[in-house]
């Protein structure tokens, strides 16, 4: 059920922060506290980046697998609010057998080797509501290449690119999805949300913080009328972590 209680505002450092209620507890101001400069030290030396030849091979394989039918991309995270393709249509979509999960450790982008973050992927089980985008038919191969360069780091990561059935208001579509069912030593499944929140509130890399990623994902899902119960609870937990880390409870009580 949606929490429809009247929300509470507290004043912190001259600004109002929303702490409880039906609006997001995680705010721009709290997210700003999670951001800090970080140097990109480059790829993990134990992981070999995709070569241009491997990008081309994977792109051509996916092009062939699209069989000339409309090419749909299922977006459940950053592709919703930061797409890297030319979409001519979008609509709500739901896929069964998958759910959002911060289960993949990362030491670059929104984390560092000294303070690893967690990346969101699709893990097995449940249901995931998101957005399906239909790509323009022009330069389909080029758009697939762009998506691979953005989403796929190594040849091992290519195994997380798959086709899944997605239910829409106009029927079932076959859509391409990235980071579904990751495997390997970097994967940590079924972490308690409290543990995930502790990581997301602290991890930051040269591309931003994990708290920022969570905030933007939940915010844009909400704007599209989609509420993921786990992410909604998680943003409250991350907000509480940031409040505690920066001693804002004490500051709020002094007003």
TrEMBL record:
Pfam families assigned:
ChaC
Which CDD domains does the entry link to? GGCT_like
Methyltransferase as UniProt keyword: no
Provide this UniProt record's keywords sorted from A to Z: Lyase, Plasmid
This enzyme's EC code(s) = 4.3.2.7
Question: What SUPFAM superfamilies is this protein classified in?
Answer: Gamma-glutamyl cyclotransferase-like
InterPro entries assigned: ChaC, GGCT-like, GGCT-like_sf
Xref: PANTHER family = CATION TRANSPORT PROTEIN CHAC-RELATED, GLUTATHIONE-SPECIFIC GAMMA-GLUTAMYLCYCLOTRANSFERASE 2
Stated name of the protein: glutathione-specific gamma-glutamylcyclotransferase
The source organism is Rhizobium beringeri
């Amino acid at each position: 059920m949606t929490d429809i209680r009247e929300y509470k505002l507290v004043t912190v450092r001259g600004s109002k922060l929303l702490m409880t209620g039906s609006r997001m507890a995680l705010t721009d101001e709290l997210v700003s506290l999670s951001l800090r400069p970080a140097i990109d030290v480059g790829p993990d030396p134990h992981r070999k980046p995709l070569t241009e030849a491997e990008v081309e091979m994977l792109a051509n394989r996916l092009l062939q697998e699209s069989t000339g039918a409309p090419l749909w991309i299922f977006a459940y995270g950053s592709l919703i609010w930061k797409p890297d393709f030319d979409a001519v249509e979008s609509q709500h979509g739901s896929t069964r057998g998958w759910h959002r999960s911060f289960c993949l450790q990362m030491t670059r982008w929104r984390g560092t080797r000294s303070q690893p973050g967690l990346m969101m992927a699709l893990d097995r089980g449940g249901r995931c509501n998101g957005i399906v985008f239909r790509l323009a038919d022009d330069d389909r191969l080029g758009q697939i290449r762009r998506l691979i360069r953005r989403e796929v780091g190594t040849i091992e990561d290519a195994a997380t690119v798959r086709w899944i059935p997605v239910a829409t208001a106009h029927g079932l579509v076959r859509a391409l999805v990235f980071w579904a069912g990751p495997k390997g030593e970097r994967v940590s499944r079924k972490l308690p949300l409290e543990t995930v929140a502790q990581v997301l509130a602290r991890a930051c890399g040269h591309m931003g913080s994990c708290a920022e990623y969570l905030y933007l994902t939940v915010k844009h899902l909400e704007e599209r009328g989609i509420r993921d119960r786990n992410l909604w609870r998680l943003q409250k937990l991350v907000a509480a972590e940031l409040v505690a880390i920066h001693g804002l409870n004490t500051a709020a009580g002094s007003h």
